Amino acid sequence: MQSPRLFAYRFQIVKLAAEARLPVMGMFVNFAQAGALLSYGPDVVDMCSRPSEYVDRILKGTKPGDLPIQRPQKFDFVLNMRTAKALHLTIPQSILMRADQVIR
User: Fold this and answer.
1) Which of 15, 29, 55, 102 to pair with 96, CA 20 to 30 A apart?
2) Which H or E run includes 26?
């Protein structure tokens, strides 16, 4: 699970994993950008923009207890091909086509 502590140490975690030739997966895009093999998790921008809808509805008179619990609706799948090459992994074209972003 992603946590602020893991976020702060993501570069060290990825570096240690690379030295041990281990693939790393993160929950948010920043892990793949730091060198993890892949990340799959909720789109942070989407998650951060959705609370404004709740505030708007509350300001218009809706009781907070009447609002449904929201779950992430958009997920990002990011592959880091530099890391895949360093680990001598071949990523099938079908997986590459599903990725929202491929880091080359």
Assistant:
1) 15
2) strand 25-26
| Domain-wise residue ranges, the chain | 4-103
Asked whether the beta carbons of 41 and 75 are under 8 A apart, the reply is: yes
- pLDDT digit string (tens) for 23-82? 999 999 999 999 999 999 999 889 888 899 999 999 999 999 999 998 999 999 999 999
pLDDT at 64: 94
Could you count the other beta carbons within 10 Å of the beta carbon of residue 50?
Answer: 13
How far, in Å, CA of 16 to CA of 97, rounded? 29
SS3 82: helix
Write out the CATH class of domain 4-103.
alpha beta
What DSSP letter does each residue of 44-90 carry, written as one string?
HHHHHHTHHHHHHHHHTT--GGGSPPP----EEEEEEHHHHHHTT--
